[in-house]
Design brief:
It contains four helices and seven strands, in the order H-E-E-E-E-E-E-E-H-H-H. The protein is of the alpha+beta class and 203 residues long. The strands form two sheets. It has a four-stranded antiparallel sheet, with no helix packed on it. A three-stranded mixed sheet has the order 1-4-5, covered by helices on one side.
Amino acid sequence: FATEYQRERYLNPRLAGEIRSCFSMTEPEVAGSDPTLIQTTAVEEGDEWVINGHKWFTSGARGASFAIVIARTDPDAPKHKGISIFAVPTTDPGFSYTKIHTMVNASTFNTYYDDVRVGDDALIAGVNRGWDLIVNQLNYERVSLAPPGMHVASLFCQHVHPDLPQVLPGRTWDDARDEVAELMIDTVDHVAPNFKASVIGRR
């Protein structure tokens, strides 16, 4: 999806470990599980796009050279159609961030875009093509997150605790195994189509 300019400026240095990036999608004002609800906007002004919005849980924003920003570029289009993705240099004076304090001190941040200005060369895959890329990225994410959970569930089933009836009165290990088995089946049901979509998306 990247242009030659984007490969030279962002991808090649990123792959060489010379710079870092961050992914800026989730917003505090709307449900993070539904990216079609984003309120960050990118408005075309002449040969520039002006981006305004607030993102949170942008992991690795501190020290990143550029942010991959999801923004709405067509407010009149169906909610999953008018979305675009931009590569935004974090050196832009309109970009800023603040640390989100978590119990584990995770490296995650609020990121703010106040009249950030970028050119057409910042658009990834073109105007209003963001939804296709978002779905593809989330499919990879879900596929990568599911196996560890399945492994933990498998270990749980293999290494039973003999004191479960005392810890949870009225529950047996047969009950627990049945519930874990159902969870694993549900996980596989979700992973399989996502994995298929990810593979198809690479063709």
